[in-house]
Amino acid sequence: MPTRKGMEVSIAVSEAVKLANVDVISAYPITPQTHIVEHLSELVADGDLKAAFVPVESEHSALSAAIGAAAVGARAYTATSSQGLALMHELMFIASSIRMPLVMTVTNRAISAPINIWNDLSDIMPQRDCGWVQLFAINGQEAVDLTLHAFRIAEDPRVLLPVVVNLDGFILSHVIEPVEMPDQATVDRFLPVFKPVLRLDPDQPVSLGNFGSPDVFIEVKKQVEEALIGSEKVAAEVWKDFESLFGRTYKPVESYKTKGAETLLVTMGSITETAMTAVDAMREKGQKVGLIHIRLWRPFPFKEFFQAIRGAKVLAVVDRALVTGGVGGPVGLEIKSALFEKKERPYVAEFVAGLGGRDLTVEVFAEMASKAGRYAKAGKEMHYEMIGVREK
Amino acid sequence: MIEVRFHGRGGQGAVTSAELIALAAINEGQYAQAFPSFGPERRGAPVVAFLRVSPSQIRIRSKIYHPDIVVVLDPTLLDIVDVSSGLKPKGTLVINTAKTVEQIRKDHGFKGRIAIVDADKVALEEMKVAITNTTMLGALIRAAGISRMDSMDGPLDARFGKVAERNKKAMQRAFDETIIKE
Amino acid sequence: MAKIDALHPWKEVPIGCAILEAGNSRQLKTGDWRSKIRPVTDKEKCIKCGMCWIFCPDMAYSQNTDGYFDWNTYYCKGCGICARECPKKAIQMIAEEE
Q1: Percent of chain A that is helix, strand, coil (3-state, to 5)
Q2: Which of residues 136-195 of A touch C (CB under 8 A)?
Q3: Among A311, A313, A319, residue whose Cα is nearest residue A347
Q4: Do C13 and A216 touch (CB under 8 A)?
Q5: Are the C-beta atoms of B36 and B57 separated by less than 8 Å?
Q6: Distances in Å between the alpha carbon of A339 and those of A264, A334, C19?
Q7: β pairing state of C37-41 and C91-95
Q8: What is the set of domains in chain A, with CATH numbers?
Q9: Is there a contact between A40 and A49 (Cβ–Cβ < 8 Å)?
């Protein structure tokens, strides 16, 4: 029987990793990921989780070790944030391109400088291109569920790609809230034992991480691309299965009060819930505002996205990272290019908000939705707007 | 939904207060959210913790700017932090203090609903330490009723083990001794 | 299995650019890198110690049933380490005719 209890979300994520019966955890601590890996190390030390916990000397080693573990057929896991993720950067591409199905949690935190331990998405956004499946949780329950989904999606023979589950550092990771922890028996039915496809095995030797000359590089990248794009279909199957076992539904793009909405807020991560509260307030005032949030960021769910925004005249995109010197934020960039070839497209108002953990209140979301509407009416040519910058 | 802000000093357990009540409320079947004002803290530095409790799902993740209740674990904070900042007009200020309500109103100009208890005294007598976080939960529940006293048993047992009983006694005493004035 | 000099369609390349055939580096004709000189062993001087085989950085030597070491033109890169290490100076590097 699942149990509903108050838990710190980080701890709930560790418990999900335990339910997933991982074999190897290699990690280096960094705020605000620490509670996840500390708890996992306790579980291993107490014998509650039969796994090897490898305390490494850096995040670069953490991901290296996880890749190595996956390469010998172990279910591998790591977690990091901010600078730690940056330190893993070269390995992010390697993990996906040599097709290692491991899972990583990132508790999103701003990338320095200035040194900042609070939440925004500037750590994960520069990893857009690396070939991992990328998911975003908006609350503790999702953080738990997506962790379980991640292993199944990663290990599917049609995918064989690493998966990252993002949850906002502090504002989600360090909050105590009610979570329904699934029971082990049902998780075991959902998540079978890992059956590796590519495995370093002395009885059947293979070589991984090889040289790829210009004659073959493109073909290997094409495979990664097709596998990543194809993972959306696999995710849909996994979510369908999850729903039948646990009763909770998951879609690549979720809609909230979008029926009849003219303006849609577009969000990712746990600020979505605050934005939903803003939508409730605006709807009560008779404003035709709704919200969509993107759960599956890579591969980008173009079809579901177009479906979700159908009928909307204005999109107010809330980005939590800046594509410095470019067109604003990464989500806005993605959306605008996705819409480029459409004959009819909504007005896209792009906002970069809450960098470095500056608090995003209900009022700020209402302000962004209202600005978006005004700019659209005025036909304002808008690249993007940084919210909250003190001018004086 | 009720929003509570706790003021304490690092090491006094302000965050634990918020967490314990959140766990109690969740065990009752309510929804609750507890979190600190995030950041690196050192012992003694003023800290803030937040709590939201609601019968329905809570969908706000920002800090609390207009609390319904403010709990002050350490009376010395009244001189250095504007603890009642943003407190709703009908809100309640719950203070650990040895002073009277009249003295508090005079010294700090606070005019709204106020609940006081000498939690330092209670904690010292019941637990031999002047750590008032669990004690003050008695005052909070008395003043605002956001969860039942008996719902606190489970979380207190889980968190404090052998010393849970002492904490419960202190909490009950605070509940009984809290003075509330409109 | 993709041969080294074959160009396969993307669906047929092993995923992750993995090499699925154990020891396939044997197929690489490193002997083509040899330029103009090759070793020759004088069997009169050879004491069958095997140092040429031990020191060869490639797979150019293998012991035959008589105990002498046969030279393999497929792998030898002509580095001359065998000639240098032979304790009996039994190996000479000679010009290789086309």
Answers
A1: 40, 20, 40
A2: 160
A3: A313
A4: yes
A5: no
A6: 15, 9, 41
A7: antiparallel
A8: 3-246 (3.40.50.970), 253-386 (3.40.50.920)
A9: yes
Residue B137's alpha-carbon distances to A253, B61, B172, in angstroms, are: 41, 23, 9
H/E element, B158:
helix B153-160
Q: Are A179 and B27 in contact (CB under 8 A)?
A: no
Domain boundaries, chain C: 28-95
Q: Which of C3, C8, C15 should one mutate to test binding to chain A, selecting the residue with the greatest count of A CBs within 10 A?
A: C15
CATH number at B133 reads 3.40.920.10
Per-residue pLDDT of chain A (392 residues; tens, 9 = 90+): 667 999 999 999 999 999 999 999 999 999 999 999 999 999 999 999 999 999 999 999 999 999 999 999 999 999 999 999 999 999 999 999 999 999 999 999 999 999 999 999 999 999 999 999 999 999 999 999 999 999 999 999 999 999 999 999 999 999 999 999 999 999 999 999 999 999 999 999 999 999 999 999 999 999 999 999 999 999 999 999 999 999 999 999 999 999 999 999 999 999 999 999 999 999 999 999 999 999 999 999 999 999 999 999 999 999 999 999 998 999 999 999 999 999 999 999 999 999 999 999 999 999 999 999 999 999 999 889 999 999 98
Best of A97, A200, A207 to substitute, by most chain C Cβ atoms within 10 angstroms, is A207
CB-CB neighbors (< 8 A) of C28 in chain A: none
CA–CA dist B89, B24 (Å, integer) = 27
Question: C25-81 pLDDT, tens per residue?
Answer: 888 899 999 988 999 999 999 999 999 999 999 989 999 999 999 999 999 999 999
How many angstroms separate the CA atoms of A291 and A275, rounded? 8
**C in contact with A (at least 3 C-beta pairs within 8 A):** yes
Which residues form the domain of B102?
2-181
A200 near A71, Cβ under 8 Å?
Answer: yes
Q: Which helix (H) or strand (E) holds A94?
A: helix A89-97
As given in the structure block, the two tokens for residue A312 are 């909307």
Q: Measured between alpha carbons, how far is B109 from A309 in angstroms, rounded to an integer?
A: 52
Give the rounded distance of the alpha carbon of A158 from its chain centre: 20
Q: Which of residues 19-58 of C touch A (CB under 8 A)?
A: 19-20, 22-23
Q: Does any CB of chain A come closer than 8 Å to the CB of residue C8?
A: yes
CATH topology for C28-95 is Alpha-Beta Plaits (3.30.70)
Angle at alpha carbon of residue B135, lines to B132 and B137, rounded to 5°? 110
Kindly tell me if the per-residue pLDDT of B156 is higher than 70: yes
Which candidate in A4, A175, A180, A256 is best for mutational testing of the B interface (most B CBs within 10 A)? A175
Structure tokens at C19: 């090499």
Q: Which residues of C touch A208 (CB under 8 A)?
A: 16, 18
Prediction ipTM score: 0.92
Q: Are A332 and A319 in contact (CB under 8 A)?
A: yes
Is the minimum CB–CB distance between B147 and chain A shorter than 8 Å? no
Number of domains chain B contains:
1
CB contact under 8 A, C10 and A205: no
Distance, CA of A331 to CA of A349 (rounded, Å): 12
What's the predicted TM-score (pTM) here?
0.93
Strand (E) positions, A182-334? 253-256, 263-267, 289-294, 296-298, 314-319
